[in-house]
Design goal:
Layout lengths: L1 H5 L8 H8 L9 H37 L2 E7 L14 E3 L3 E6 L2 E6 L2 E3 L5 H16 L4 E7 L5 H5 L1 E2 L2 E2 L1 H15 L4 E12 L2 E4 L22 E3 L5 E3 L5 E3 L2 H13 L3 E2 L7 E2 L2 E12 L2 E11 L6 H4 L3 H25 L11 H5 L1 H4 L4 E8 L6 H15 L9 H54 L7 E5 L8 H14 L10 H7 L10 E4 L23 E5 L5 E4 L12 H6 L12 E2 L7 H9 L3
Parallel strand pairs: 1-5, 1-18, 6-17, 6-18, 19-20
Antiparallel strand pairs: 2-3, 3-4, 7-8, 9-10, 9-13, 9-16, 11-12, 14-15, 16-17, 19-21, 21-22, 22-23
Helix pairs in contact: 3-4, 3-13, 4-6, 6-7, 9-12
The chain binds adenosine-5'-triphosphate.
């Protein structure tokens, strides 16, 4: 089965047809359990193909990210916010991967992996960030950092606004949407948010009574400690980690964390973030027996700032100094990683300590460096671009000849297509699997309702079950058809009238046929065929009958529909002893809940 699936053939059988051809005398009755097992075989064939495709997609994505570089550096230029009508030429000009800064005595050219110009949208940025989220879902630790001078749009890129969502809410949305589509694994997510403020850690999702740093100067009661486990992973002791079962809850917690951030007005930004804000999404992926845990860090770094320029004083100046110190520690870590040093100075700041298991080997990093287009900010822009260059050089193979660059682009396009194709096919497979699983569930539900109907026999011990019929029995047309038949034949369908035999056995006079208890199973199965996998299950005409003796155990017997003759109370006593039309299948089921009366009626009315 696995081999077939690997080769792209998923042999999907049509249960109804298959089962009908199995029946030696007329093919009217379906084996309920056989139908389920056929579906389950189909599901396992689809899952096998799904595993294969997932593996292929993951490998291609791994190669793509390796080729692009496990640290990708983007640059986003903030739109000009000048209020004057006079258009001042910006010293910053950009191309797709290059930024040139020209000012008096300044000529600086930089390359990054992708430049987002002033007109770029949140969508453009997220499009480039998205592939790395797949890496997080595949089990890698991932870190997305927004870096730059204060007021250049880091918070805008990460948080966005209500009508222009930023990377964090979009990433959360993407994770949930992927989890809902992927039927090969189950995912669970939890969220934590913290702030690195003046060298201390503050839990942004902690219960509200926690004092705010800015309101109580020097307060360190909220300071959390960082623990490194022997496996090298990092934990923040006591940090609130909230399980988020759905997107709505995740967004609620994220908004709550955002509201708790420390901000303050500076000359440069009215709502300047006075800290680094870190959002952590912990992803638990369970595929089969193994559970993989990975972390996605979304970091809105505090703005690098010239203290004189921001006009900061007092507490705000201290905050600025603390931000600059930890950014410089982050720069040192990046430099050490670049030089492949055995010692990386993660411990020099809380920020780098927390991120230590998500910046080094095996993890994937995207850094979005923000710059201002303004002439006044040229100094800071050059500093930020210097930082970007250092981060980029962690990947030593960055500077390639034109030929190699072309080859690289070609390979990237191939891998992109491979991923795209695999994802498309996975989408179809997921839908097919879901549909088949629904069908199995529906079939499984048949037995309980039937059992209940049979066991619930106060006054009328006779029950007959026609199970396995696959038809749109709930449709108004079907109901109408059945009603007219009933009107034509009296109060019960014609095949339900007592036979001579049964009347003889039980006395027709005393056992009226006016109210036989009858339940017809309702089941539908449909799935859109797609590609080589076809899941079209036509409505089956087959029927199976279960006769109950009123005991908790129930026997399903298969008979031809034209042999279904019910005499009011004859079934119980005769089911086990009377000669039956060659039962082909029998299984034992347990009675469960009572099916609602209206259901019985509807189902009965739909019988032909
Ligand atoms: N790409 C953009 N499009 C539209 N508005 C933007 C963009 N980038 C930034 N802004 C606006 O510029 C202002 C400053 O941006 P933001 O607060 O995101 O900067 P910041 O880098 O986070 O600053 P700080 O480091 O001080 O917190 C905000 O009003 C924001 O809406």
């Amino acid at each position: 089965m696995e081999k077939e699936a690997m080769e792209g053939h998923v042999n999907v059988m049509l249960p109804q047809e298959n089962l009908r051809s199995d029946l030696p005398n007329g093919g009217i009755v379906l084996g309920h359990d056989k139908e389920i097992s056929t579906l389950q075989e189909e599901i396992s064939a689809l899952r096998s193909r799904q595993r294969h495709l997932n593996r292929r997609r993951r490998e291609a994505l791994g190669k793509l990210i390796d080729l692009k570089g496990s640290i990708r550096v983007f640059c986003r230029v903030r739109p000009s916010i000048s209020t004057s009508n006079i258009k001042i030429k910006s010293p910053v000009t950009v191309e797709q991967e290059n930024i040139a800064v020209r000012a008096v005595g300044i000529k600086k050219d930089s390359s990054v992996d992708r430049v987002f110009d002033q007109e770029s949208t949140q969508d453009d940025v997220f499009h480039e960030v998205k592939p790395i989220l797949r890496s997080a879902l595949d089990g890698h630790n991932v870190c997305i950092l927004a870096f730059g001078q204060t007021g250049t749009g880091k918070t805008y890129t990460m948080e966005g606004t209500s009508d222009n969502l930023g990377a964090v809410p979009r990433a959360i949305q993407e994770l949930f949407s992927h989890a809902a589509q992927d039927t090969s694994s189950t995912y669970s997510f939890s969220i934590s948010m913290l702030e690195v403020y003046m060298g201390s850690l503050r839990d942004l999702l902690a219960p509200r009574q926690q004092p705010l740093f800015r309101s109580i100067e020097g307060n360190t009661t909220c300071n959390l400690s960082i623990l490194a486990t022997t496996s090298g992973s990092v934990q923040v002791e006591g940090l609130t980690d909230v399980a988020v079962p759905d997107l709505k809850k995740a967004n609620q917690w994220y908004c709550r964390g955002r509201r708790s951030r420390s901000t303050s007005g500076t000359n440069v930004n009215n709502v300047s973030s006075r800290s680094h804000c870190l959002t952590r999404i912990t992803i638990r992926r369970c595929g089969g027996v193994t559970e993989q845990v990975s972390k996605l860090w979304l970091v809105d770094l505090g703005g690098s700032e010239r203290l004189l320029k921001t006009g900061a004083s007092g507490l705000t100046m201290d905050e600025g100094k603390a931000i600059n110190l930890s950014l410089s520690a982050l720069g040192d870590v990046i430099a050490a990683l670049r030089r492949k040093r055995s010692h990386v100075p993660y411990r020099n700041s809380k920020l780098t300590q927390i991120l230590s298991d998500s910046l080094g080997d095996g993890s994937k990093v995207v850094m979005v460096v923000h710059i201002s287009p303004s002439k006044d900010d040229v100094g800071e822009t050059i500093c930020s671009l210097g930082f970007a260059k250092r981060a980029r050089l962690i990947e030593s193979s960055r500077e390639l000849s034109e030929d190699l660059k072309m080859l690289k682009r070609k390979r990237l396009a191939e891998l992109d297509k491979e991923i795209c194709d695999a994802e498309q096919e996975l989408g179809v497979l997921n839908e097919q699997i879901r549909s088949a699983e629904r069908s199995v569930e529906e079939r499984k539900k048949l037995s309980p309702s039937v059992c209940q109907a049979l066991s619930d026999d106060k006054g009328s011990p006779r029950s007959i079950l026609v199970a396995g019929h696959i038809d749109a029995v709930d449709s108004p047309q079907a109901t109408e058809r059945a009603k007219s038949r009933m009107a034509h034949h009296g109060s019960v369908p014609h095949f339900m009238s007592a036979t001579v035999c049964s009347r003889q056995r039980h006395g027709a006079a005393s056992h009226s046929v006016s109210k036989p208890r009858l339940t017809r199973s309702v089941n539908t199965y449909s799935s859109k065929p797609s590609g080589s996998q076809s899941f079209s299950h036509s409505a089956s005409k087959a029927k199976s009958v279960a006769l109950s003796s009123g005991e908790p155990r129930l026997k399903y017997l298969s008979v031809k529909s034209d042999q279904i003759n019910v005499s009011s109370n004859s079934i119980d006593s005769t089911a086990a002893s009377a000669p039956r039309p060659r039962p082909r299948e029998s299984l034992v089921s347990r009675p469960v809940q009572r099916a609602p009366l209206h259901q019985h009626r509807r189902r009965m009315s739909c019988l032909t």
